[in-house]
C-alpha cells in the first residue's frame, strides 16, 4: 500500500537520530546547498524580506540561518510535535554547538547573516501547524528543504505539496528549495520507517514549470559521508511564483 502524509505520525519524528545521522557536522552536500542558497539570498539587501516561511521546518537550523540574511521575520512552520519542541528549545533556551560551523559557513558566504548564531535565530517564529493550512499569499519568500518528497510515497501528493509551497507566497514571491533525489521509503535510527517519493531534476522541473517563472533547477551528486538512505543526491531549486 502507498503511504500518504496523513498515514504518518509526524509527532514521533526521531529528532535525535535524524540530527545524529545528518547534522552533527557540515557534510559536503550541506556545504553545496549552503553555497547555492547563499548566492540566492545575496540578491536581497539585509531585511528586504518582511516575512518568509520555512515550509515544514523540521529540526534543521541552517535554512533558518540562511534566511536571516534577508528576512526580518521567518516563520518556521512545522506539524510534528517533536520537531517543534526541538526548535523552541534551540531558539528560546539553548543552542547545540554543532550548529555553529553551519552558521560560520552561512555568514562567510553571505556577510548579511547576523554575526552570532543566536542573532540569526532571533528572526525565527516557530509555528506549530500543518503547512497545508497556510493562507495563500502570506509571504514574500518561501524556503523548503527535504519536505515534499519526504512527506508521502504518492507522486500526486508530492506535486500538491509543491503547489501549496508556491501558493504560500504572493505572486512574484521568491522560492528556494532542496529535494533528496530518488529518495525511497527509508529508515532513520535503528527502526523507524519514513516515506519517500523518488524525484529528480526532470520531475521537479515538470512540477514547478507551470507554477513559476525564472525557474532554475540544479543537481548535487550523492554524498558518501551521509547515511545510505538510497537517494542519489539532491535537487536544488530557485524561482519566482506565478499566481496559482
Keywords for this entry:
single chain; 244 residues; alpha/beta; 7-stranded mixed β-sheet; two-stranded antiparallel sheet; 24% strand
Fold blueprint:
Blueprint: H1 15-22, H2 28-41, E1 52-55, H3 62-67, E2 74-78, H4 81-92, H5 100-109, H6 117-121, E3 124-128, E4 139-145, H7 155-167, E5 169-180, E6 186-188, E7 192-194, H8 201-208, E8 212-221, E9 233-241
Parallel strand pairs: 1-2, 1-4, 2-3, 4-5
Antiparallel strand pairs: 5-9, 6-7, 8-9
Helix pairs in contact: 2-5
Organism: Streptomyces coeruleofuscus
Keywords: Methyltransferase, S-adenosyl-L-methionine, Transferase
Protein name: Class I SAM-dependent methyltransferase
If you had to describe this structure to a student in words, what would you say it looks like?
With about 240 residues, the protein is α/β, with parallel strands linked by helices. About 30% of the residues lie in helices and about 25% in strands. The protein contains 8 helices and 9 strands. The chain has helices at about 15-20, 30-40, 60-65, 80-90, 100-110, 115-120, 155-165, 200-210, and strands at about 50-55, 75-80, 125-130, 140-145, 170-180, 185-190, 190-195, 210-220, 235-240. The strands form 2 sheets. The chain has a 7-stranded mixed beta sheet, with helices on both faces. Strand 4 (about 140-145), helix 7 and strand 5 (about 170-180) form a beta-alpha-beta unit. Helix 2 packs across helix 5. The longest helix is centred in the N-terminal third of the chain and has 14 residues, at about 30-40. The radius of gyration is 16 Å and the shape is globular. The model has no long low-confidence stretch (mean pLDDT about 95).
Amino acid at each position: 500500500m502507498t503511504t500518504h502524509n496523513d498515514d504518518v505520525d509526524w509527532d514521533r519524528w526521531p529528532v535525535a537520530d535524524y540530527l545524529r545521522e545528518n547534522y552533527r557536522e557540515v557534510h559536503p552536500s550541506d556545504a553545496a546547498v549552503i553555497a547555492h542558497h547563499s548566492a540566492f539570498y545575496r540578491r536581497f539587501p539585509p531585511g528586504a524580506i518582511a516575512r518568509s516561511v520555512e515550509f515544514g521546518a523540521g529540526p534543521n537550523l541552517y535554512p533558518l540561518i540562511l534566511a536571516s540574511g534577508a528576512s526580518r521575520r521567518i516563520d518556521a512552520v512545522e506539524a510534528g510535535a517533536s520537531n517543534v519542541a526541538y526548535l523552541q528549545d534551540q531558539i528560546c533556551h539553548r543552542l547545540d554547538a554543532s550548529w555553529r560551523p553551519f552558521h560560520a559557513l552561512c555568514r562567510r558566504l553571505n556577510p548579511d547573516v547576523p554575526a552570532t548564531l543566536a542573532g540569526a535565530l532571533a528572526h525565527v517564529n516557530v509555528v506549530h501547524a500543518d503547512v497545508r493550512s497556510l493562507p495563500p499569499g502570506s509571504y514574500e519568500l518561501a524556503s523548503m528543504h527535504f519536505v515534499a518528497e519526504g512527506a508521502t510515497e504518492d507522486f500526486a501528493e508530492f506535486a500538491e505539496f509543491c503547489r501549496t509551497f508556491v501558493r504560500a507566497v504572493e505572486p512574484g514571491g521568491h522560492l528556494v528549495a532542496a529535494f533528496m533525489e530518488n529518495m525511497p521509503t527509508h529508515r532513520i535510527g535503528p527502526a523507524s520507517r519514513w516515506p519517500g517519493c523518488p524525484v529528480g531534476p526532470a520531475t521537479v522541473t515538470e512540477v514547478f514549470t507551470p507554477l513559476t517563472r525564472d525557474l532554475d533547477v540544479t543537481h548535487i551528486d550523492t554524498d558518501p559521508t551521509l547515511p545510505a538512505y538510497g537517494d542519489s543526491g539532491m535537487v536544488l531549486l530557485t524561482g519566482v511564483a506565478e499566481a496559482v
